[in-house]
Amino acid sequence: MTYHQKPYDWKALFLAALAEVPVISHACKAAGVNRVTAWRAREADEAFAKAWDEAMEAGIDRAEQEAFRRAVVGYEEPV
Question: 66: exposed, middle or buried (C-beta count within 10 Å: 0-12, 13-18, 19+)?
Fold first, then answer.
């Protein structure tokens, strides 16, 4: 292991968080990495870049579905 490698699979954590909330800074925080590390990994690893795109798309789809549901069905807002 070189000095800059994480001792855990941060990429899996990053991708899961990105699919949940499609915001890069959120995914980086969830995975415990900084944005530069994430972007460098994306540039160096084609499979990770593809998974990143897929996770982002899944997260955006979720957000769109929730926005549609709230617009059509509505939602309870605590007072």
Answer: exposed
